[in-house]
Amino acid sequence: MAEQCFHCGQKIDKEQILFDDKIFCCNGCQSVYEILNVHNLENFYNINKNSGIRPSNENNAQFDYLDTPEVFTKVVDFSEGGTTLVTFKIPVIHCSSCIWLLESLHTINNKIKYSQVNFTRKTVQISFKEDEIKLSEVAKFLTNLGYKPVINLETAEKKQDKLDKSLLIKLAVAGFAFGNGMFFSFPEYVSGDDVWFHSFKHLFRIILFLLATAVVFYSASDYYKSAWYGLKNKIINIDVPIVLGIFVLYGRSIYEAVTDYGPGYFDTLCGLLFFMLLGKTFQKRTYNSLSYDRDYKSFYPIAVTKVDFDGKQENILLSDLAVGDRIMVRNQEIIPVDSILIKGEGNIDNSFITGESAHISKKPGDKIFAGGKQSGSVLELEVIKSVDQSYLTQLWNKEAFKKFETGLDTMTNTISKYFTFIILGITLVAGIYWSTIDFEKMFQVVSAILIVACPCALALSAPFTFGHIMRILGRNKFYVKDTLTIERLAKVDTLVFDKTGTITENKKTNINFVGTEIEEFDLKNIKSLLKNSNHPLSKSLYDFIEVNDDYFEIEDFEEISGKGYQGKVRGSTYKIGSASFTGQESQNMETAVYISKNGEFIGKFIFKNEYRNHLAQLFQNLKNYRINILSGDNSSEKPILEKLIPTISEMKFNQNPENKLDFIKSLQDKGEKVAMLGDGLNDAGALKQSNVGIAIADDSNSFTPSSDVIMNGEKIPELDKFLKLSKDAIKIVKFTFIISLCYNVVGVGFAVSGHMHPLFAAIFMPLSSVTVVTFTTLSTWIRSSKYFKISI
């Protein structure tokens, strides 16, 4: 059984570092452990076992541009009198120990004054003195602890969710009115013939009227907008009968208070709207920190390094970059604009745009598109298009890549359309009947029908059920955008998987050697030679070869861009690279590194994608769905996929973003309900076009395209459980509809017969809401525990 790193908890397959009687997977984890112990923060490991974040081994501490005045001003929250406040977004914050450590930064670094974490938004605000520590040093400090901040155009704009804030204010107003309304209405119910109360009852009723008026015309305003929006689109949605019930209850209450017929139902009205807003808030607050609607700003860096013809470097805002400027791009950095390579040897990974996992070699004079990632030496590029004209931005802004939703086609609104007409019909018939018998009682009957039939329980069932389901799914790293997505998930009958990065591991490759057995002497020499190359395949091969990391001096090293490299090690000359470079014939659709020694071919290392674990069982569980595979790669792995997915409907390779989008459209034209799973910008159009777009994210730091669901990559083998739970959620909602309708049938029956006073109707109506909320809470917990471990 593989050992686990004491700091980060990851399994250690190869090299182990023993320090202080503990095992670590890398020097980074050991360093963080030492830092915490030096500063007496070892309780970090007691708060949450294996909770540390492994520091990245990439050269990711390039934050010097943050000290540029223009960038500094754009990033910080406050800077005056030498004191600076900055808020960094840190997606890897995930537990109590993360919060504890990040709020203890001042203990580790006395140049930091204080730090405060917002767990919901995954941010940390840090206060520091400019004359003691630079902003770039703060960012590097966090990175070295494993909490690398994400800094891009999107985070720099510091968008706030105003809608949630407005909803919370409306909820607070309704809660205040409900609590005080109950207080002022209580004497009315228990006072009897008390003289003191009767002398003040009109004052109490005026106060209740004012409280209810604030709730009706402010807190409930979203219901009026929704009802009007539905009517404009010729649809009777659930909010239409709710609005009707609100005004009837409000109007009846005013009538009773003015005529001294009774106290009215102001307290009941405030209570109903409070619970309805509570359900809406519960639903909307679920994972509101996740960004489902992404644009290119969350992908682009905030600043770039500009280089003049004398070689002088200057950090400038990306928005200030102009055509003709020269910029510097380092290893593992994103190309921000379409440009021409001037200096350096490019090794560009375009998988984020095209889906093709191969790396493209570039030489001076070649064009490089925005969105590619450089692997290797520093490049100098000349800008040929501005940011808003680059290929990546144009691809993102295509109309075909945008999804427009009305939210009017929900199950609740479908039922409410018939519900409203039925209730209005019953009310009309009952009103005509009682007007011929007892005109005064007719008003009582009509009021009782409309009050008791207000579909508040109907409106509560979906938000509370889906809110619980969203919370449970989120705990299992399946983050759903809204309730409409759950309904659409339940209707899905076709699944489309992107291959690279979705059903394959992003950071794992299956390497096989074909050729004569290589002796350890040669393996050590080859590994020494591999260490001199920045090519991704060379790096993977270097990690794959399991011999001691002894480094031997290289003589006559020469690298030919796009072909390979050669050098003399301990008297032998080795060539590593393409088939033609070593004098061999390449096999079609094969990714391989060929090796020769002293002109004699030794063998080749073949690279194949490493598929995620337990996929065979997943596809067996998904046998009732039509399954399709799309890939930007070639078809070399088609036989593997056919064996992995025996029931596969269709596979398409060499697909660009437009091809994927068109394929989704063709399925929908056949009447299929499609869920698309993808991980990169090349999947963005297909994700938007599909009925449900599921973005896969292995690393919470990584960019995810606009989507309906964000799903952790390790949870893909459990996709069938998420789909089943979505179907169960619909069943629960339907059952709560039945409960609500039963209440309405009984209540309306008594109201029509004239045996229900409006006061009893006002009590009967919230009782149905309480029943629905209780039922949906218990049933969602029971159904969820069937698939996942659920804590109460």
TrEMBL record:
Transmembrane residue ranges: 167-186, 206-224, 236-255, 261-279, 418-436, 442-466, 732-753, 759-782
GO molecular function: ATP binding; ATP hydrolysis activity; copper ion binding; P-type divalent copper transporter activity
Protein localization: Cell membrane
A Pfam cross-reference name: ATPase-cat_bd
Membrane topology: Multi-pass membrane protein
Domain P-type ATPase A, residue spans: 305-396
Record domain Putative metal-binding: where: 4-78
Cellular component GO terms held in the UniProt record: plasma membrane
InterPro entries xrefs: ATPase-cat-bd, ATPase_P-typ_cyto_dom_N, ATPase_P-typ_P_site, ATPase_P-typ_TM_dom_sf, ATPase_P-typ_transduc_dom_A_sf, ATPase_P-type_domA, HAD-like_sf, HAD_sf
Highest rank taxon of the organism: Bacteria
Signal sequence, renumbered to the chain: none
Biological processes annotated in GO: copper ion homeostasis
Keywords recorded for this protein, A-Z: Cell membrane, Ion transport, Magnesium, Membrane, Metal-binding, Phosphoprotein, Translocase, Transmembrane, Transmembrane helix, Transport
Family to which the UniProt record says this protein belongs: Belongs to the cation transport ATPase (P-type) (TC 3.A.3) family. Type IB subfamily.
PANTHER family hit by this protein: ATP7, ISOFORM B, CATION-TRANSPORTING P-TYPE ATPASE-RELATED
Protein name per UniProt: ATPase
Source organism: Epilithonimonas arachidiradicis
Gene: ccoI
